[in-house]
Amino acid sequence: MSLFSLSVLLATIWLTLRELASRMHVPRAWITLSVDKAIEKFALLEIARHLLRLLVAVSSTAELSMYSLYSHAKSIPLSGGLLTMLRTQGGAQDRLVVESMGITTSLLASELPGRILTDIPVTSVSQNHENGVTVRTASGELFHASKVIITVPPPMLKSITFDPPMPPNAERFKGIPA
């Protein structure tokens, strides 16, 4: 495949349009469109689709079927642009976490003992203006704070009750299979 082939030209145009859109306006409708589906839909030639999947996967280190076009477009300017993302130094591959994100959480928890708790199944999260946030665990323990961060795989959201309920755009994550 030559650098001057139609497939390379189409892939370059597609990426350039994503870069431009990311700096001007990213439509909210893109949040429901995976990068993989967008490439399938808009890249006309099979070789261009393969090239785009490779370039976006390398630049984002993400699973393209689980990565929205919206998230990809929003990440481009935050990462310094597509060319920066594709570099081996300073790009997506430069600081790749090999172990897992769990190691990051463990390191943070060891630095902030008692403030970051891990491996505690949460059953409900209640929030109001007077009392802040109350988190109930599977063991019945209650935690109160002005703010909390709860990290769970999307399929686990089904087992947590939120009061007030999560916004409709967040509710869709409950349907993602494990």
From TrEMBL:
Keywords, alphabetical: Signal
Domain Amine oxidase stretches: 92-172
Keyword match Signal: yes
GO MF assignments: monoamine oxidase activity
SUPFAM superfamilies: FAD/NAD(P)-binding domain (SSF51905)
Signal peptide region: 1-18
Reaction(s) this enzyme catalyzes, per UniProt: a secondary aliphatic amine + O2 + H2O = a primary amine + an aldehyde + H2O2
UniProt EC number: 1.4.3.4
Similarity annotation: Belongs to the flavin monoamine oxidase family.
Protein name, per record: monoamine oxidase
Biological source species: Aspergillus niger
